[in-house]
Design a protein that fits this description.
With about 725 residues, this protein is mainly beta. The protein contains 5 helices and 42 strands. A hairpin with a 2-residue loop joins strand 28 and strand 29. The longest helix has 16 residues. One of its GO terms (biological process) is iron ion transport. Belongs to the TonB-dependent receptor family. Pfam families: Plug, TonB_dep_Rec_b-barrel.
């Protein structure tokens, strides 16, 4: 672990001591700002009353406590049952719409750095590759990916397609840390991100406008209404444009790394009968971003004659239903999505003639990804006597059919490379939630998943695999008081094996095996008089760890091709701490913070040339992450927010020793509002710090230094200033 900013330990220590001394409360959400003081007072009164309650095993005591807790709680939507975050035995951060607004967040990658032990990697126009607790993918070229971090929007599975994470008209973002094998299966080895957009019956109507440096413009409208007692509908649409932060010297253009993102969403709720509710949704994304990020001089001035692109066209339809029964409720969901991805880049990063050996190439990956998934489950609506207590149960079956067709168009291929990759997944799952007394409860979850894979390409490779995987969790909750909960958790996650399609690889390297993760976790959650606190400690063992590796291939003309692939390392270990809190010292100030500590180790990484790397840190796993935020609201018109966030340096890859820079960023926002409108001035990266979102180990690509081996980086955005305007109608 490298140097930690000197103010950080002092600030955190003094803040924590002062808060504990005054019985202030912290939050289990990473960022929750601009909360109405009446809510704070309600939470304060609730906590004071609850702390006086006597906790015993009597029925009246249990009912009293539950009533007190229900008066003010944060509802988590990503579970089979909506749960109060306070009593959910796992480490989870919830970002509300206020938090997203304070960051002027356009995309998920604008807020991830504010969450403890969460990181992301670009290699594209957006942070398309997310890591939680040091686990997650870092790129995608030829290989089809079974993601380590699940990604869901209103219950629709977008795992592996994080480009869909635009944030217009989003109600809350939930980030679940640690294996979620029982809930989400093989797409959640490291955790999951669940986005809940505004509900169909939300009647908040508004228009948003954004203007900022680098030709940045955004416009969006969201409106909803209750048509009658049965039907509610909501529509939201946004267009976001920006030239980006790259200047192409050769083309004399400043928009080759631009953003052009359209988001549209239509939701409807139909109360078909007293006992039947149906929810419909249509999600549409049209993304036409540029990708011209790497420079021979590691700056923001490129020389590409064929700037790349990062495009996505997605349409998804879903229906979710709930049928209430006398003792059992039935829920079902069905979602169909079609996504076209078009990703390409100028591989030589320069123009024709720059390389004296005549090296000029372009690499393009066109994907058509189709997905259909369905879920049918039954939930008890009356507790039964089971396992020595009152038990609520869930059981269900899940299926998913995916097909991914890839066409790679590459200068050095005689013909386009094509493959067809199909997976068929069936899961059986169940969960038991048992309350033994007013203090003690448990959660037991189990999932069995079978995943069949069929791969064939025009290089003559035809392979089928079948993986049977089991995941689950066992958790014990102890309600220390009406405002305090302690939990212990054991969980198991899994990630399916797969195929490396790279034609240059030897056959033994073209297949990799299932990875398993075992997680032990202890946590503490507390509501205090004016805030919230969450602390968790975890230890994870990784078996047959899948790691991204690379080798180089020398072409006949003596130029070098960079080949990335997935292989299995020996076991690995990840351990760490997460702490998040929120404090309201008075009605005008809100202080929020998060702190993550992470220590990772991989036993051995085997490279394609037969060499080994012993006991390295895992890639994309910073030793610490932090966020500190302060919101000041002196009256009903003005508010100001400043936030500090950062991360330790880390390895970019498992297969080389190149590291990032430590990151320490400052963001600010000043707002003035009237009943029907709000105007905000904001700045990101106030100190204009230089840091990286992607990096490669040494290879030669610059003829000016005789193709000397050196590292190359993708730079993050510099300082940017802008204004937001919201009009309510």
């Amino acid at each position: 672990m490298k140097f930690i900013p000197s103010f950080l330990p002092v600030a955190l220590s003094l803040s924590l001591l002062s808060l504990l001394a005054s019985e202030a409360v912290f939050a289990d959400t990473s960022v929750v700002n601009n909360v109405d003081p009446s809510i704070v007072n309600s939470a304060k009164n609730t906590t004071e009353r609850a702390s006086e309650a006597s906790l015993d095993s009597s029925e009246s005591s249990s009912e009293q406590i539950n009533q007190q807790v229900d008066e003010h709680k944060i509802v988590v939507r990503s579970q089979w049952r909506s749960r109060d975050l306070q009593n959910l035995p796992t480490s989870i951060a919830v970002l509300f719409s206020d938090s997203l607004e304070n960051r002027s967040a356009q995309h998920l990658d604008d807020v991830l750095r504010s969450v403890a032990n969460v990181n992301f990697n670009s290699g594209a126009s957006r942070g398309r590759f997310v890591q939680i607790r040091g686990i997650g993918e870092r790129s995608q070229f030829e290989d089809p990916i079974n993601p380590s971090v699940g990604f869901y929007i209103d219950g629709v599975d977008f795992s592996g397609v994080f480009g869909a994470g635009t944030l217009f008209d989003v109600a809350q973002v939930e980030i679940l840390r640690g294996p979620q094998g029982a809930r989400f299966g093989s797409s959640s080895l490291a955790g999951a991100i669940y986005i809940e957009t505004e509900a169909a019956d939300s009647e908040t109507d508004y228009i948003d406008l954004t203007l900022a440096e680098e030709g940045t413009f955004g416009a969006g409208v969201a409106t909803g209404t209750n048509l009658d007692e049965q039907w509610s509908v909501r529509f939201a649409a946004e267009q976001f444009l920006s030239d980006g932060f790259i200047y192409n010297q050769f083309l004399n253009r400043d928009d080759t790394n631009n953003f052009d993102e359209q988001t549209a969403r239509l939701k409807a709720k139909w109360q078909a009968a007293d006992d039947l509710e149906l929810n419909f949704a249509w999600h549409h994304l049209d993304i036409d971003n540029g990708y011209d990020a790497f420079s021979l001089d590691n700056d923001r001035q490129t020389r590409s004659d064929e700037p790349g692109f990062d495009r996505q066209m997605t349409d998804a339809l879903s229906v979710q239903g709930t049928l209430l029964g006398a003792s059992v409720n039935t829920e079902f969901s069905l979602a169909v999505s079609d996504t076209e991805l078009d990703y390409g880049y100028d591989e030589d990063w320069t123009y024709d003639g720059f390389h004296p050996i005549g090296y000029s190439s372009f690499d393009r990956y066109l994907r058509d990804w189709q997905n259909i998934n369905g879920d049918l489950r039954w939930l008890s609506n009356q507790s039964i006597d089971m396992l020595g207590g009152k038990t609520d149960w869930v059981m269900g079956v899940y299926f998913r059919e995916e097909e991914e067709d890839l066409t790679r168009q590459y200068t050095y291929l005689a013909n386009d490379f094509e493959y067809d990759y199909q997976t068929s997944t069936v899961s059986l799952y169940g969960e038991l939630q048992t309350a033994y007394s007013a203090r003690w409860s448990s959660v037991i979850g189990l999932r069995f998943e079978q995943r069949d894979t069929d791969y064939q390409d025009n290089d003559g490779i035809n392979r089928t695999t079948s993986d049977n995987m089991i995941g689950g969790n066992v958790a014990i909750n102890y309600r220390w008081s009406a405002s305090e909960t302690v939990y212990g958790l054991l969980s198991r996650g899994f990630k399916a094996g797969g195929i490396n399609p790279q034609t240059e690889l030897d056959l033994p390297l073209r297949q990799f095996d299932v990875e398993k993760t075992h997680n032990a976790e202890l946590g503490y959650k507390r509501r205090l008089t004016n805030g919230r606190l969450q602390v968790s400690a975890f230890y994870m063992e990784r078996d047959d760890q899948q790691v991204s590796q690379y080798t180089t291939f020398v072409r006949p003309d003596n130029t070098t091709e960079f080949i990335q692939y997935i292989g299995n390392a020996n076991n690995g270990r990840n351990k760490g701490l997460e702490m998040e809190w929120l404090w309201y010292p008075n009605d005008t100030i809100a202080f929020d913070a998060s702190l993550g500590y992470l220590d990772t180790e991989v036993d051995t990484i085997f490279l394609a040339d037969g060499s080994q790397i012993k006991d390295p840190d895992a890639a994309q796993a910073p030793g610490y992450t932090y966020h500190l935020g302060l919101t000041y609201t002196p009256d009903q018109h003005w508010s100001a927010n400043v936030s500090f966030e950062g991360a330790d340096d880390y390895f970019f890859s498992d297969s080389h020793q190149e590291r990032s820079l430590p990151v320490n960023l400052v963001h600010g926002r000043l707002s003035y509002q009237q009943p029907q409108w709000k105007l905000s001035l904001w700045v990101r990266n106030l100190t204009n710090e230089t840091y990286y979102t992607r990096g490669f180990g040494g290879f030669g690509n610059d003829p000016r230094d005789s193709y000397a081996t050196k590292p190359y980086y993708q730079l993050a955005a510099p300082q940017q200033i802008g204004i937001d305007f919201r009009y309510l109608f």
